[in-house]
Amino acid sequence: MANFSKSNAPQFSVDVYQNEYLPEGGREVNAIVTVTATGGGTIGSAVTAPHLHAPGQGPDAAVAIMVDCSGSMDYPPTKMRNARDATAAAIDTLRDGVHFAVIGGTHVAKEVYPGGGRLAVADATTRGQAKQALRRLSAGGGTAIGTWLRLADRLLSSADVSIRHGILLTDGRNEHESPDALKATLDACAGRFTCDARGVGTDWEVKEVTGIASALLGTADIVADPAALAADFTQMMETAMGKEVADVALRLWTPVGTEIKFVKQVAPTVEDLTARRVEAGPRAGDYPTGSWGDESRDYHICVQVPSANIGQEMLAARVSLVIPQAGGTSRSSEAESGGGSARSLGAQGLVRAVWTDDMAASTSINPQVAHYTGQAELAQVIQQGLDLRKEGDFDGATAKLGRAVQLANASGNADTAKLLAKVVDVVDAATGTVRLKAKVAEADEMTLETRSTKTVRVKK
């Protein structure tokens, strides 16, 4: 394992689950890669003592909290009050020594605390000052989320830390900025900090909020009732305080003649990483995974190999974990081993291909691969079904959402099944027979859409 400056940094492991057997002429190899980090610094996220950390284990993080202060936050007036209370709760959860700032977002971004283009360092005094500054927050103005993110980026980049994280709250659509401008901002901020995004109420656009979280490798969710914001913000900050290693990349090395068809995170949520590949030397590429604490995630890797004869076998891909050089690229002649310009995290796994004439061996589907293929389809058909429903294609929506019910039932994804049952009447879950509900609460539909990518892990 790699040596870290922090003795409580997590240790990484990689496990590969696959059916390596292919029939003669078979070319597609699928594998589920489970990455686990254990023994990391969860001290800072302990609910019982959120401001403590072990001697010599000082925090290495900076956090920017972006609070929507547009005019719609005054309707109802309790929404702004709940947002202030939630931000105060998040500030209370900061570890001593963490750099932080609070940003008020409208059609422009303003520094609420500490101001002057600086970050504060969390202690009892600065936490108190920040909460005092929150009292000055009031609603008024438009919404241009890109300006909030750019200010957060400027502030976070001023700290010499490894973990940079944002928390963003909005209650409305990004009406005072073009979609292209927001996309340009997300492209500029990607890899510089991670960001969790939350929509409060039901007047915001799901695809905007989930798009922000996706681009910045964070989480997205709906808080339909503003009264639940404080608990959600506390949980988000506790999770952020538990991160110990930033900018971890999944590095895939493949031999000549092979091609990576896709790389997807499939647990705890579905996130397609294929297009985010950064070349990392001969036949190697890095796929960003963001920051890690004590946790485990699953990835589905699909590799196309050259066809071969019965009895032949080959290494289809080597999977390793690295921290690329600053700047997000890692070009090195030692890319295969994760050396050179990237720091290896000391864990790797192998994806193999073996050609056989044993039909039973070559046609069986690995349980992990089958499970997560279904979970990825579940997320897709929910999105398609909801989009068709909005377009008025009720037959198409019924078919897609029926398939979603069937997949959720078969995989044991009870949470998604419950959300689906608020949008459709389930006649027979096993066959996916459903009827669209005549009336659906907007919050229920938005919750299903926002959480459609959440998966359940395979039962091993």
User: Would you identify the regions where 5 or more consecutive residues have pLDDT less than 50?
Assistant: 1-7, 42-58, 327-340
Mean pLDDT reading: 91
What is the number of helices? 11
Shape: globular
Biggest sheet, open or closed, and with what strands and sense?
Answer: 7 strands, mixed
Helix content: 25-40%
> Strand pairing plus helix content: what structural class?
alpha+beta
- N-to-C span: 26 Å
Strand coverage percent = 25-35%
Count of strand segments: 20
* Rg (C-alpha, Å): 23 Å
Your description of this structure?
There is one protein chain. The protein is an alpha+beta fold. It contains 11 helices and 20 strands. Helix 1 runs antiparallel to helix 2.
Secondary structure elements and pairings:
Elements: E1 11-18, E2 21-22, E3 28-38, E4 61-68, H1 78-92, E5 99-105, E6 109-113, E7 120-121, H2 124-134, H3 145-157, E8 163-170, H4 179-189, E9 194-200, H5 206-215, E10 220-223, H6 229-241, E11 245-253, E12 259-267, E13 271-272, E14 278-279, E15 284-292, E16 295-304, E17 313-323, E18 343-355, H7 359-363, H8 367-391, H9 394-411, H10 414-420, E19 424-428, E20 433-436, H11 442-450
Helix pairs in contact: 1-2, 1-6, 3-4, 8-9, 9-10
Key structural traits:
460 residues, alpha+beta, seven-stranded mixed sheet, six-stranded mixed sheet, disordered N terminus
Overview in brief:
The chain is built from 11 helices and 20 strands. With 460 residues, it is an alpha+beta fold. It is globular.
